[in-house]
Design a protein that fits this description.
By secondary structure, this protein is of the alpha/beta class. An eight-stranded mixed barrel has the order 1-2-4-5-6-7-8-9, surrounded by five helices. A hairpin with a 4-residue loop joins strand 1 and strand 2. It starts with a helix and ends in a 9-residue tail after the last helix. The structure holds ligand C2E and magnesium ion (3 copies). The site of ligand C2E has 25 residues, from strand 2, helix 4 and strand 6.
């Protein structure tokens, strides 16, 4: 098998035979095995969605949740998305998997409302391949119809780099999605490179400050400046701004004092099973002084 790979490399004519080592062969095989596993994981019901609260400090309440996909792999156990989303993106499996996440999250959002809980926004991540899919708009509409979730409670999170690949086409598609009544948010903001001119044209309602700027906020003055700049930019453009990856009370205080009042991170809650979100929503329904209030 190793030899076959060597010959294939040779056949491409370039002098790249030296790059094929035993180790790379093993990881290629591993990658192919994972891709094959991904093909059947949906039918095998190996995926699950966890939800991470988004907290608004003025009220101390959970105002939304982000749906985060996990793969319960039959041999490897629970796998985080970074280990398989890129592969699903590469193979195209992400389109079907993403549609399942969308439907699952919309149904969950509707189910919480049917329990009489105060409605919250459900955010779902969308990757480039999903976004490019010609049927994305139809798929979103279908998920809303099947679940019965009012579009105003659904938000899609897209990244700047996704949008910037083809700015005009992306903005057109975002407008189409927005016209359906859902909202859009820019994930990992600050790590891509959208110009301010482009940002102005995005039909979005919020920016998410990437967690890489939040991590070292206590000590890194550059990150402090960047976080403040993103917060002020959001205010100027009349967008909501949320910080992701908030883990400490110091980070929370800095962001709060800088004018960012929506937060997400381990300080508040990790991504959890839907039953735990239900518990939080029930708890805050009758609490006089909500848990995360900064008032
Ligand atoms: P993301 O959308 O930027 O999600 C935030 C990630 O940060 C999540 O990782 C979350 O668990 C993690 N996180 C939240 N709070 C904290 C914190 O306080 N500290 C630290 N260190 N991390 C925190 P996760 O769940 O592993 O997801 C990673 C990425 O995978 C996501 O980044 C998103 O890009 C992608 N992803 C997850 N679910 C889906 C999905 O259903 N579809 C698509 N297309 N992508 C998904
Ligand atoms: Mg996200
Ligand atoms: Mg993010
Ligand atoms: Mg991120």
């Amino acid at each position: 098998n190793a030899d076959a790979a060597m010959y294939r490399a040779k056949d491409t004519g370039k002098n790249n035979v030296q790059f094929y080592t035993q180790e790379m062969n093993a990881s290629l095989e591993e990658k192919l095995a994972l891709m094959e596993g991904l093909r059947t994981a949906l039918h095998g019901e190996q995926f699950l969605v966890q939800y991470q609260p988004k907290v608004r400090l003025e009220t101390g309440r959970v105002f939304g949740v982000e749906a985060l996909l996990r793969w319960r792999h039959p041999e490897r156990g629970m796998m985080p998305p970074d280990q398989f989303i890129p592969l699903a993106e590469e193979s195209g499996a992400i389109v079907a998997i993403g549609e399942w996440v969308l439907l699952t999250a919309c149904r969950q959002g509707r189910a919480w409302q049917d329990m009489g809980l105060h409605p919250i926004t459900i955010s779902v991540n969308v990757s480039p391949r999903q976004f490019d899919d010609a049927r994305l708009v139809a798929r979103v509409r279908r998920a809303l119809e099947i679940s019965g979730l009012d579009p105003k409670w659904l938000e899609l999170e897209v990244t700047e780099s996704l949008i910037m690949r083809d700015l005009q086409q992306s903005v057109a598609k975002m407008r189409e999605l927005k016209a359906m009544g859902i909202s859009l948010s820019i994930d990992d903001f600050g790590t891509g490179y959208s110009s301010l001119a482009a940002l102005k044209s995005f039909p979005i309602s919020s920016l998410k400050i990437d967690k890489s700027f939040v991590r070292d906020l206590d000590t890194n003055s550059d990150d402090q400046a960047i976080a403040r700049a993103i917060i002020s930019l959001s205010h100027q453009l009349q967008l909501r701004v949320i910080a992701e990856g908030v883990e400490t009370t110091q980070q929370r205080s800095f962001l709060h004092e800088s004018g960012c009042h929506d937060m997400q991170g381990y300080l508040f809650s990790r991504p959890v099973a839907p039953e735990l979100i239900q518990g939080m929503l029930e708890g805050q329904a009758d609490a006089e002084m909500p848990e995360w209030s900064m008032a």
